[in-house]
Please model this.
Amino acid sequence: MSDSVVPSSSGPADPLESEEAQIAPVRAAPVEVETEPTSAVELFGSQIEAIRAFTSNLADQGEILGLIGPLELPRLWSRHILNCAIVAPLLRPGLVGDVGSGAGLPGLVLAIARPDVNFVLIEPMERRVAWLNDQIKSLGLTNVTVVRSRAEDARLAHPLDQVTARAVSAFSKLIPLTAPLVRPGGELILMKGAGAQREVEAAAKPIRKHRLSDIEVITLGAGVLPEVTRVIRATVD
Model:
């Protein structure tokens, strides 16, 4: 027979205890951050410590600042950090703009992965601009500046060699926002989902208007990432 003491149920329940039980908030279990995949070192090389620091900062502060949702933590590396990093080889030394940088995806991730490239992060929301500037300072990045502006209102000192964007808008709507920022012969490098090819087909009018050529959908990360990354690449004539 067990020696454990079982409270008697013969008497009335403590009303205060019952009331507290009813009003006590239900606390969600803490969400674990995804373990760093082995491919992170392959993609970032000597920059691995910088991206680890950025990922840790994003995990700690991203939900509080409204940059990412709580459900993103278990896939923070694979779905966000590495999803952006896989685009780095498409960039050329020069000046690259990132429209709607938000949490720094892809702009800060690419700036870490490609210290040989200069970046301009274009973001209209003040709290996100503050986050981006804080990260640039804390990570000691010297190849990044932030411009608080909507893309269509941005006044840059120099035209861009390339421009990126991730999860901002459909290709047809992104073209008039991004193409005017790019020099003739420059490129759009736009991260898209599984419907990338359909977006290209639906954008015939803005493609003609903004004189885009050599348009292609590139699939990156097969065999390296759990989900491939799709990029629409186009030249601005």
